[in-house]
Amino acid sequence: MSDMDLLERLDEQWSAGSPADLPALLHQVPTDQRHVSQELCAADLEWRWRSDESPADETFPANPRADDYAAMLEGQWQDIQCQKNIMEAEWCARCVWGDAPDVDEFAARLPTLDNWSTELTRQLHSLVPWTIELTSPSLKHPVAFGASGNFVVGRQGRGDPPAPAWVEKSDRVIIANSHFRIISRAQLRIRRTRVREMEMTNVSQTTRHKLGNTTLFAKESTRLSFPCSISVGEVNMTFSLSDPLQTYGTE
Amino acid sequence: MTEKDSDPLDFAHPDAAEHLWDAFYQRLRLAVRQRVKEIRRPVASESEVALSAMNSFFNRARNGQFPDLQSEDELWRLLKTIAIRKTNDLRKNLRAQKRGGNHAVFNQAELDNNDGRVDAGVEAATTRDVSPALEAELSDLMQVLMERLPDQRHRDVILLKLQGAPIPMIAEHLGTTTRTVQRMIKKIESEWHADLLSS
Question: ipTM higher than 0.85?
Answer without folding.
Answer: no
